[in-house]
Every structure is written in structure tokens, then in C-alpha cells.
Write a structure and sequence with these properties.
Elements: H1 2-7, H2 9-30, H3 38-53, H4 59-76, H5 83-97, H6 100-119, H7 128-198, H8 203-228, H9 245-254, E1 259-263, H10 272-293, E2 298-304, E3 308-315, H11 328-339, E4 343-348, E5 353-360
Parallel strand pairs: 1-2
Antiparallel strand pairs: 2-3, 3-5, 4-5
Length: 361
């Protein structure tokens, strides 16, 4: 609102200057006031002109100046037909741009100003005349006040939308960090454990695993930089989503779980958010298989049709015990799928454990 007031300051100053010129022309050229009333007429006109110039930048002080100028004119000089219109404009502005409290105080000021204005005038012929003026002034005040409250509601909605977007983004980053750190730490633990067991009788293989562990750490740091960059569109890895699936499969294989991936040619270019979600689902499912299944092999299948994207990750491990409860990883997969109106099923498969996911594309 402050920006709007600042943007209109020049226009208001011009309008106030034009009003003062017109008022002085009326007072001293078209319908000259008596000499004894000239000072009061000029003072009242200046107050009203300043009020018009400040009506948006300082709405309540402008209203006070306007009411003072109008009452001064009614008390000390013959009234001008221009002055009430200047006051009417300021009344609308104070209701439109002032705070709620100031706008409500101005409502009492409107009634008092009109009462003073008509109480000292001798040419009021009918009681309905001040009543009609009051109705018009109150109507303009009501219109300004309603516009202000409507703008407040819109700003509140926009603020809540921004807060919701921030919360969603934070949740998405939290899931990204969980998937990244959880996958990498588990992978590095498996590689470190295998290296320790092979260190004495197969140093060459242990060296390879340690090199893989080092590379996993470096890749994790690179991807962590990307995630902490609020998932910016510019990806320093040069690839994202399922394009990184071969690298993931290689890591899992080096960690001791040979993995085969099969991505259908119909998958094509997915929307970035869907592509990244699909990759994270596969990553989490393979991490679970590596940690818990005791499998000898894992398979990843990704297919796409007109209705959506199908993801399947299965292994030939020992499966899951009866009545198992999904852990954080599987719950995270379900949350990711829900973002795309998808469904997830998981449990013992024909030869081990399987996670199947259907995402709308």
C-alpha cells in the first residue's frame, strides 16, 4: 500500500496545486470575497489544497487539515462551491488509505465537520439539505473503507499463499535431504563394512570399495550443494532425475547389490518435478533393498503410458515378515507419490520384496 501512495504522490501534489489555483481564481476573480475575509479564505484554501496533496501519503493528517479548512471557511468567510468537493475527495481517501482505527475516527470527524459547516450558515433552507450532504459523504467513506478492507483480505490471501509455498518448499527440501543423506550414508556404511571385511584377504577389492566410498562422498557433497540451492533450475551436475539412474545403479552394484535398470523408451522427457520424484522413489527403494533385504539382485523398471508413470523396484531377498510396518523410507515414497495423485504398493513379492508406484503424468 505504501508503494501505491508513493506512486500517486506526484499526481496528488499536482491535483492539490490545481485546486488551489482554481479556488483562488474563484475567490478573487469570479466571486471576490470581502477584503476582511481574504486572509481566512486563503488560509482555508491552502489547508484544503495541502490536504488533497497529502491524501494518500498521510491520509489521516490530510483529513484533519481538510476538515479544519472547511470549518474555517464556513466560520470566517463566504463559502466556496469548490471546497466541499476537495473535502469529499479527502474523506474517501482517509477511509481508503488510512488504518482501520484512523478511518473510524475520521467517520466521527465527518459528522462533526458537516454539523459545524451547516450550523453557521444562514442560507440553509431545509433540514434535508445537511442530511443529503451527510448521506453522500458517508457513502463515499463507506466505499473507500470497503475497498481498503477488500485489499487487506487480498493481501492476507497472498501472504498465506506465500507462506504455504514456503512450507511446501521446505517440506520438499527436507524430503530431498532425507533421501540424499539417507541413501548416501547407508551406501557408504555398506561400502566401509565390505572394505573392512576384505581388507586382510583381498586388499585390491577393498581398495576399489574405498575408492567407491570416496566417490560417493564427493557426489553427495555435489548434490547437497544443489539441494541447498533450493532446487534451482540450473543443475550443476548437468543431469537430473532419471537421467542419473545409471549412476545410481552403478553405486548400488558397487556396494554389493547387483542391480539392473530397464527404462522404457516411451518415458521420454518428463516434467522436471515428476522426473525428480521418480528418481527419488527409485533411490529410496534401492536403499531399502540394500539395507534390509539381503538380496543377491535387484531390478528397476520404469514405464509410461497415457495415464501416468509406473515404477517397480523388486529384489530377490528374504522379503518382509508378516505384519511388517513401513518405515520412514516407504512413508516418504508414499508422500512423494501423493503429490502427483499417485499410489504406492509394497510388500513381499514372488521372490523377495517389491515396491510399485503409479504416478500421474
Amino acid at each position: 500500500m505504501r508503494d501505491i501512495r508513493s506512486a500517486g504522490a506526484g499526481t496528488d501534489a499536482t491535483l492539490g496545486g490545481c485546486f488551489l489555483v482554481a479556488l483562488l481564481a474563484e475567490r478573487f476573480m469570479l466571486d471576490p470575497v470581502p477584503g476582511r475575509d481574504a486572509a481566512a479564505a486563503v488560509t482555508a484554501g491552502v489547508l484544503l489544497a495541502v490536504a488533497v496533496a497529502l491524501r494518500r501519503s498521510l491520509p489521516f493528517p490530510a483529513f484533519v487539515l481538510s476538515a479544519t479548512g472547511l470549518c474555517l471557511e464556513a466560520l470566517a468567510t463566504p463559502v466556496s462551491w469548490l471546497s466541499p468537493y476537495a473535502n469529499l475527495l479527502v474523506v474517501f481517501s482517509v477511509a481508503r488509505h488510512a488504518s482501520r482505527r484512523q478511518a473510524r475516527w475520521s467517520l466521527a470527524g465527518v459528522i462533526l465537520c458537516i454539523a459545524v459547516y451547516f450550523a453557521v450558515r444562514d442560507e440553509v433552507l431545509r433540514p434535508t439539505q445537511p442530511l443529503g450532504v451527510l448521506v453522500v459523504w458517508l457513502a463515499l467513506w463507506t466505499a473507500g473503507y470497503a475497498m481498503a478492507r477488500r485489499q487487506e483480505e487480498q493481501e492476507t490471501v497472498r501472504r498465506l499463499d506465500r507462506e504455504r509455498e514456503v512450507a511446501l518448499e521446505r517440506g520438499r527440501i527436507a524430503r530431498e535431504l532425507h533421501d540424499l543423506i539417507g541413501h548416501t550414508v547407508n551406501l557408504m556404511l555398506v561400502q566401509a563394512g565390505a572394505s573392512r571385511r576384505l581388507l586382510d584377504h583381498d586388499p585390491g577389492r577393498a581398495r576399489e570399495l574405498l575408492l567407491g566410498l570416496e566417490q560417493s562422498g564427493r557426489d553427495a557433497l555435489t548434490e547437497l550443494d544443489r539441494v541447498l540451492g533450493v532446487l534451482d533450475d540450473a543443475d550443476p551436475l548437468g543431469a537430473d532425475g532419471l537421467a542419473l539412474l545409471p549412476v545410481l545403479v552403478e553405486r548400488i552394484t558397487e556396494a554389493g547389490l547387483p542391480t539392473t535398470s530397464d527404462v522404457g523408451p516411451e518415458v521420454g522427457d518428463l516434467p522436471r518435478s515428476l522426473d525428480l520424484t521418480a528418481y527419488r522413489i527409485v533411490q529410496e527403494a534401492l536403499t531399502n533393498a540394500l539395507r534390509h533385504s539381503g538380496a543377491r539382485h535387484a531390478w528397476v523398471t520404469v514405464r509410461r503410458d497415457d495415464g501416468g508413470l509406473d515404477i517397480a523396484v523388486r529384489d530377490d531377498g528374504r522379503g518382509a515378515a508378516d505384519g511388517y510396518r513401513p518405515g520412514r523410507g516407504l512413508l516418504g515414497i508414499g508422500e512423494r507419490a501423493a503429490m502427483f495423485g499417485g499410489t504406492v504398493t509394497h510388500g513381499p513379492g514372488p521372490d523377495g520384496f517389491a515396491v510399485r508406484c503409479r504416478l500421474r503424468s
